[in-house]
Design goal:
With 445 residues, the protein is of the alpha/beta class. α6 packs parallel to α7 and α11 packs across α13. The protein is globular. The chain has 14 helices and 15 strands. The chain folds into two domains: 197 residues, Rossmann fold (3-Layer(aba) Sandwich), CATH 3.40.50; 187 residues, Dihydrodipicolinate Reductase, domain 2 (2-Layer Sandwich), CATH 3.30.360.10. Helices cover 32% and strands 18% of the residues. The longest helix is centred in the C-terminal third of the chain and has 20 residues. The strands form two sheets. The protein has a nine-stranded mixed sheet. Strands 3-2-1-4-5-6 form a six-stranded parallel sheet, with helices on both faces. β11 and β12 form a beta hairpin.
Amino acid sequence: MQKENFTNDSRRAFMRESTLLAGGLIALPSLSWAWGPSGTDDTLKVAVVGCGGRGTGAALQALGSKQRVKIVALADAFRDNVEQCYKTLVSEIEENGGSVEDQLQVPVEHRFVGFDAYKQAIPLADVVILATPPGFRPIHFEEAIAQNKHVFMEKPVATDPAGVKQVLETARLAKEKKRNVVVGLQRHYQTSYRALFAKKELIGEITSMQAWWNSDGVWVRPRKYSQTEMEYQMRNWYYFNWLCGDHITEQHIHNLDVANWFKGAYPVKAQGMGGRQVRKGKEYGEIFDHHYVEYTYADGTTLHSQCRHIPGTVNKVDEMITGTKGKIACGAGRITDHVGKTLFQFDSKTENNPYQAEHDELFTAIAQGKYVFADAENAAYSTLTSIIGRMATYSGQVIDAEKALLSGLSLQPQLYDWDAATPVIPDEQGYYPVAIPGVTKYTLG
């Protein structure tokens, strides 16, 4: 992915390897993970639920947080993910000068596999990392808070309105219990974005915004003869809405969330267009390859959003925020007035690694016994923003955010089991049903 501003270069600088767009391991910079002496057993025990690239990366960043952290349980639907995660953790701990004995205590009996693996792993920990495909996030988050755990969970936090509502209910309980919750919308922890947010009054009242996540797309995993339909969809979760929510939800949520953050509000309605113009093969499941959405906030402010997964097209991942006095170009770290005069320029040399920072701040708060982070509510509403955008492009309707949230619309299967029926099934040629604007309809009350 190319991005024509300093953030792409700075991201490469603090990543040992480039981050995969989805499901990829976020590699850490070289850190010393050797603990100093401690007179008490103040180690924070961590369970990882979802042991693919994201879960493994989050576990490594927890270990790199400078707090006394020990991974004590691994859980995933697939055995190979669990074992690969364990091997990677061993290798990275050793490479960074840490102690496997002190920082990774996951015997075979604490490597849980299956749809209910999270229920076995969560009770063993103080902090839970939730990094499965996002369709599972609502039930996993609910269990973690029910067990009184602090949580780091990846975005998005749901794939349907019913899931968003469930997360909001759990978020309220997390606040009551004073459980810290950080969500992987890492721009909130990025030095440049924080600096821009602190200076946003320079542009006056926000009147319109633009957001982009345009890229080539992500991985595809071929179907294997022995797989049930459930296993195939789980392995290829990015292409099925009950698991992923389409790339407008799985990826573009980052940009939509930035707009909501700077605006200090969430859209009340969405309308737009989208479809499958290039990626039309059966291997792409049911998701679109492009979306364009016009979001409207309660005061009339508009957000123009576009995301695309089409190889060979212009790549752009960024946000632009326009006010009565000027503009914020988020990727460039720059604020200008309406004639182009620079009012503020962030120094890219002071940029941080936001992926690491979110873990540093979370684990510091927990170690100090402080209740600081309550990210889940914002993440839920930004997830809803992405979902109503998808509903608008799929249907061609104007989608009301509140009606969608209260609709109870769920994409989840009746049963999580390898032989259970999946929410969508292929036809005789192996193609999945795809939404058709003007034909697909949503009844929201």
